[in-house]
User: Which sequence fits this backbone?
């Protein structure tokens, strides 16, 4: 019996698998049209999990699906963890994409119309809506739009039943882990199953997964080391208060005179 691994059990809500499914140009185009209720002539190019680096010291971003259609840019993100930072993330993504789409010296009017789209498995704004759409408005006159071409849309798969459009409702239902007989969803589901048969994609995913596991373990180890260091320094400070000599502390705490000096300064600052 074949052992079922992480790759075989992935669902569309996994960002890696979602990006691979969206590499089908027609499916990606159709999903964007249904989610945004707009017509798209053609997808000029499509990058999966595109990384944008603007400056050496600036925070880079890895976008799940980055699509350009003429004078419009679409960023599709699958989000399964509520880190309470989506408004700020969407703002940062917007700025990074703008910097990526305009050349130095060009007119600001060259900026492309942009859509930042988060498909969430949770309700990001706790309002019970299936969709939250934002664009810049005048606070003194809500009928006055800034018309800067920037839009941010958040979909909530958890409350899919409140979506107005059937295709959107059924897609969000599928993202939520439920079955759907919707033809468009069935097409996506078939693409998911075909994607899982792609051995190259499986190896790529497992490589990234193992790398993430290693990074998490490194982070945990660094955290444990920081905890041990903090505890050791508390003991050193107590020993200094009790009059232990530097030599005694070095032997008993397996430390150095440099660290003892740091602890002595910490003790002085605290006083």
Assistant:
């Amino acid at each position: 019996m074949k052992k079922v691994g992480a790759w075989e059990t992935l669902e569309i809500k996994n960002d890696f698998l979602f990006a691979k499914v969206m590499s089908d140009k027609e499916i990606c185009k159709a999903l964007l049209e249904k989610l945004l209720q707009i017509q798209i002539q053609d997808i000029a190019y499509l990058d999966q999990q595109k990384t944008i680096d603007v400056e050496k010291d600036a925070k880079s971003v890895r976008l799940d699906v980055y699509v350009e259609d003429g004078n419009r840019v679409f960023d599709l993100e699958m989000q399964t963890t509520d880190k309470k930072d989506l408004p700020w993330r969407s703002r940062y993504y917007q700025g990074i994409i703008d910097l990526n789409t305009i050349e130095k010296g060009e007119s600001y009017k060259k900026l492309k119309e942009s859509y930042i789209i988060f498909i969430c498995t949770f309700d990001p704004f706790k309002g019970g809506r299936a969709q939250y759409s934002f664009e810049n408005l005048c606070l003194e006159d809500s009928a006055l739009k800034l018309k800067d071409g920037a839009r941010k849309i958040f979909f909530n798969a958890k409350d899919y039943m409140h979506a107005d459009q059937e295709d959107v409702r059924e897609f969000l239902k599928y993202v939520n882990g439920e079955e759907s007989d919707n033809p468009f969803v069935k097409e996506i589901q078939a693409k998911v199953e075909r994607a899982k048969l792609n051995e190259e994609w499986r190896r790529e995913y497992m490589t990234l997964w193992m790398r993430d596991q290693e990074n998490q373990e490194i982070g945990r180890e660094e955290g444990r080391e920081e905890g041990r260091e903090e505890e050791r320094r508390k003991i050193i400070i107590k020993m200094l208060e009790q009059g232990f000599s530097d030599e005694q502390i070095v032997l008993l705490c397996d430390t150095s005179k440099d660290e003892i000096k740091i602890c002595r300064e910490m003790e002085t600052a605290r006083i």
Notes: The mean pLDDT is 86. The first helix runs from residue 15 to 21. Residues 165 and 252 are 70 Å apart (CA to CA). Helices lie at 15-21, 25-36, 86-101, 166-175, 183-195, 199-241, 246-253, 257-270.
